[in-house]
Design a protein that fits this description.
One of its GO terms (biological process) is chloroplast RNA processing. The chain is mostly helical. Among the domains are: 67 residues, no CATH class; 148 residues, Alpha Horseshoe (Serine Threonine Protein Phosphatase 5, Tetratricopeptide repeat); 128 residues, no CATH class. 64% of the residues lie in helices and 4% in strands. It contains 38 helices and six strands. Strands 2-1-3-4-5-6 form a six-stranded mixed sheet, with helices on one face. β5 and β6 form a beta hairpin. The longest helix has 17 residues. The protein is elongated. The two termini are 63 Å apart.
Length: 739
């Protein structure tokens, strides 16, 4: 097989096996019998009985027997650190083996830093100093708490103790530095090892994979192979992991061939790694062949196959895998919910979640809640989102950063900004995702100045913003007309915050400038971009041209956009609307004809409303809803009432090919948001707010109608369209109509 490379799975470096210096060369019968009993202990109660017998017979005074008892009490599967400490305190003169055992026990326990205290007690005893068996466990403790300063101090002490180049110490240091994010130091340690073992190579490869550098891991494996280092089973799993991350199917197949040719023992872990590589690389056929051959399967196996089908959006096959699982666990359910949610199928995700709720003996976890809350946010399922929030409180589920961010995002996108603020204020610790979610919520509700204040408070809290933060801040500036503030922050992104602007940030600034009427300035900004303008950049300019009726610039922006995305139906519709606004009906007809000839169809308007936990969807002119007759009856009643109060339909969006004014008016009345609002009127009573989610931008006529309905029917109406929220109450809209 030709030379190849890869990376390994996440694993800790192997610990050294250290010997007890007091191990007798010749055991007497009593000691030998006791040691045999200790080795056969299966629980703590048995060990305590042996301990008591050793004390009675005086055998506990034998250093080897005592240290053996202590090691089992500290390191066995039934170990008890509290009991082990009591045993340790009874040993008159603990030797280096016993000290190292206690350090190891604490380093592997719930409070790894306790091992440092034990270490300090050890060195205070002038009889013993640290040796090559001591440092790996201390360094492991530093890695567990990701303390770079502690790892560096221990590194220095190991060098001073002349064991810094020991392979076990060095391997532990590599793992520690990677855990703390110091890749350069890990590489330096690696180069100092004169006789590297396979763990040395695996520790480096593992670190690179874990820290998002699988390409470097692959290069290192090439070097490993060139130096004739025999790869281990762990290395093979790592190779496949790197192939999966780099989506390198060709190399992954070669690795699988290598495993077969060299008769590598394919246990379940390795088989699952092969399966994961195939699914991540999109080769579901290879995955299915391997899956069918596997004699042993666990839930990881089944879930990997489910993920593979979901990646390819073959949800029927993914569902079949879930149904076929011998034992469905929460991980499998989460995989299907997440697959639907992340691929723009939130309603399907919620259906799976409701099915999960009916399952017995399966508890929802934080991943379930985050995925489901994200689906709720997409469709505006506020009632279900509230239920999940109550479930979190009732079951005492910890609000980690992900759950907190998901709750803020859900409440914000469902129109309950006050509740989003409440969740944000309820947590003491906030990471960049929590801050960004709150800033994003304020942005979509038009609270630009408050979003900016939140951005600066975030920095006062010593939380560094990321690219998402800036996107949300720029959106806030765009909808609030904060041009100077947006331009200043954009200039500071790289110089002050170390974040290189991406295409989405450039598009945001074009939107900020364009919405405020600085169209020529927006054009100059685009021309000065260091990267080619994307479709989103030209789309932002085109949208601004519609606001300010700049036809010539709109045609230019649309041409450039369609060069990048010829099948972009939104660009055609937007330009058509600009033509209509300018009275160029012939151009409108030509553009619509072009769309028909090329098979381009306008995305249909769709509005949804949640009633009693169920999402109801309405398309423009919908007659599929079971209550459509009542909805249209209510719509006629509403429109008559509005006309009696001076309402006149805004006809500009309606094509002139509809000759009769009555037909134009009827066309406007069929817009999906009007149907959803009317369904809300007949399905709910005041003071309950009517919350509607629209997939497209709300037209001017629907905006006017919603304002009048809120006044005549004394109802609060909240509409979220593709770009922002519109809050209607008492005939007023809290959002600035222009922005």
């Amino acid at each position: 097989m030709a030379s190849f490379s890869t990376a390994q799975p996440l694993s800790l470096p192997r610990h050294p096996t250290f010997s007890n210096p007091n191990q007798p060369t010749a055991n007497n019968d009593r000691s030998s019998h006791t040691i045999s009993l200790i080795d056969r202990c299966s629980n703590l109660r048995q060990l305590k009985q042996i301990h008591a017998q050793m004390v009675r017979t005086g055998l506990f005074s034998d250093p080897y027997s005592a240290s053996k008892l202590f090691a089992i009490s500290a390191l066995s599967h039934f170990a008890s650190l509290d009991y082990a400490c009591k045993v340790f305190d009874q040993i008159p003169q603990p030797n280096s083996f016993t000290w190292n055992t206690l350090i190891r026990a604490y380093a592997s326990g719930p409070d790894p830093l306790r091992s440092i205290s034990v270490f300090l007690d050890m060195v205070s005893d002038s009889r013993f100093g640290p040796n090559k068996y001591t440092f790996p466990f201390l360094i492991k403790a530093a890695a567990e708490v990701s303390s770079l300063s502690l790892g560096q101090s221990l590194h220095g002490m190991a060098v001073k103790s002349a064991v810094g180049c020991d392979v076990f110490v060095a391997n532990s240091l590599i793992h520690c530095y990677f855990s703390c994010g110091d890749l350069d130091s890990a590489c330096k340690v690696f180069t100092t090892i004169q006789e590297k073992d396979v763990v040395s190579w695996n520790s480096m490869i593992t670190g690179f994979v874990q820290k998002g550098s699988p390409d470097k891991a692959l290069e290192l494996f090439k070097k490993m192979e060139s130096e004739d280092v025999k790869a281990s089973h762990v290395t093979m799993v790592g190779v496949l992991s790197a192939c999966a991350k780099t989506r390198n199917l060709e190399f992954g197949r070669r690795v699988c061939s290598y495993i077969e040719e060299n008769r590598v023992n394919v246990n379940l872990t390795l088989a699952n790694a092969m399966l994961d590589m195939y699914t991540k690389c999109g080769s579901i056929e290879d995955a299915k062949r391997l899956f069918d051959k596997m004699e042993e399967r666990d839930n990881v196996t089944w879930t990997t196959m489910l993920d593979g089908y979901a990646i390819l959006e073959d949800y029927e096959a993914a569902r079949e895998v879930l149904n076929s699982m011998p034992k469905k666990d929460i991980v499998a359910w989460n995989a299907l919910i997440s697959a639907y949610e992340q691929n723009g199928k939130p309603n399907e995700a919620l259906l799976v979640f409701h099915e999960l709720q009916l399952q017995k003996n399966i508890k929802l976890n934080q991943i379930t809640l985050v995925s489901t809350l994200s689906a709720c946010a997409q469709v505006g399922a506020l009632e279900l989102g509230r239920w999940i929030h109550s479930y979190i409180k009732k079951h005492g589920i910890r609000l980690n950063f992900y759950v907190t961010s998901a709750l803020i995002h859900m409440y914000s996108k469902c129109g309950d900004l006050e509740k989003a603020r409440e969740v944000f204020s309820s947590v003491e610790k906030r990471d960049v995702f929590v801050w960004s979610a709150m800033i994003g919520g304020l942005a979509m509700h038009g609270c630009g100045n408050e979003a900016l204040d939140m951005f600066y408070k975030m920095q006062e809290a010593n939380v560094k913003p990321n690219g998402v933060t800036f996107t949300n801040v720029f959106c806030a500036c765009s909808h609030s007309g904060l041009v100077d503030e947006a331009e200043l922050l954009f200039k500071e992104m790289e110089s002050s915050y170390g974040i290189v602007p991406q295409e989405k940030h450039y598009a945001c600034i074009v939107d900020v400038l364009g919405r405020s009427g600085y169209l020529e300035k927006a054009v100059k900004f685009i021309e000065a971009m260091p990267i080619p303008p994307s479709a989103s950049v030209w789309g932002a300019l085109l949208g601004a041209c519609k606001i300010h009726a700049n036809l010539s610039l709109a045609e230019r922006a649309c041409t450039r956009l369609l060069e990048l995305e010829p099948r972009n139906d939104g660009a055609h519709v937007l330009l058509s609307n600009i033509y209509a606004k300018s009275g160029k009906w012939e151009s409108v007809s030509e553009l619509r004809k072009h769309m028909r000839v090329t098979g381009l169809k306008k995305e249909p308007g769709c509005s949804s409303i949640e009633i009693d936990g169920t999402i109801h969807e309405f398309l423009s002119g919908d007659n599929e809803h079971p209550m459509c007759e009542k909805v249209y009856g209510k719509l006629n009643e509403v429109m008559e009432s509005l006309k009696a109060n001076g309402y006149e339909p805004e006809m500009s969006p309606v094509l002139p090919i509809i000759d009769e004014e009555e037909m134009k008016e009827q066309s406007l009345n069929l817009h999906s948001e009007k149907l959803a609002i009317c369904y809300g009127l007949i399905s709910t009573e005041a003071p309950k707010a009517i919350r509607v989610i629209k997939n497209l931008r709300v037209c001017g006529d629907c905006h006017s109608v919603a304002k009048l309905i809120s006044q005549l029917y004394d109802r609060e109406i909240i509409v979220r369209d593709r770009y922002r929220f519109h809050h209607f109450r008492n005939g007023q809209c809290s959002c600035n109509d222009f922005w």
